[in-house]
Amino acid sequence: MLGESSLEQRMLYLADLLAERQKLGPFMQILPVCSRLLNQEIMRVSGLLSNQVAELERMGHDHPYRSLGQQPNGGQMGMMAWNAMQTNVSGGG
C-alpha cells in the first residue's frame, strides 16, 4: 500500500514531467515521439495519483491533494485539463 509520502513523490515527479513538457514545447513538432512518450507518462502518473488519492479517501484520510488529477465529478482529468492547469500555474494566458 502506498502512503502519503509516496503521493507527494509522485506529485513532484508529475510536476517535473510538466516542466519538461513546457521546455520541449517549441520542439514538439520536430520531436513527435518524445512528445507522445512524455504525454503518455504524464497521463500514466496522473492516473496513478488519482487512484492513490481515491485509496487514501476510502481509508478515511482527507488529503489536500485529493482533487489533483480529478474533475469535480470524480472523473480523471484529460490532457486538455492538465494543459490548462499548467498554463495557469506557469502564469500564462
SSE layout:
Elements: H1 4-24, H2 32-58, H3 79-89
Quickly describe the structure:
This protein is mainly α and 93 residues long. The protein has helices at 4-24, 32-58, 79-89.
Name the features.
single chain, 93 residues, mainly alpha, elongated
The proportion of strand residues reads under 5%
Count of all domains = 1
What's the order of the H and E elements? Answer: HHH
Please estimate the helix content.
55-70%
Sheet/helix structural class: mainly alpha
Query: What would you report as the Rg, rounded to the nearest angstrom?
Result: 14 Å
Mean pLDDT: 73
> How many E-type strands?
0
| Number of helices in the DSSP assignment | 3
**Biggest sheet, in brief?**
none
Give the low-pLDDT segments: none
Model description:
With 93 residues, the protein is mostly helical. It has one domain (4-81). It contains three helices and no strands. The protein has helices spanning 4-24, 32-58, 79-89. It is elongated and about 45 Å long. It starts with a helix and ends with a helix. The mean pLDDT is 73. Residues 11-52 form the STAR protein homodimerisation region domain. It comes from Sesamum angustifolium. This is KH domain-containing protein. Pfam families: STAR_dimer (PF16544).
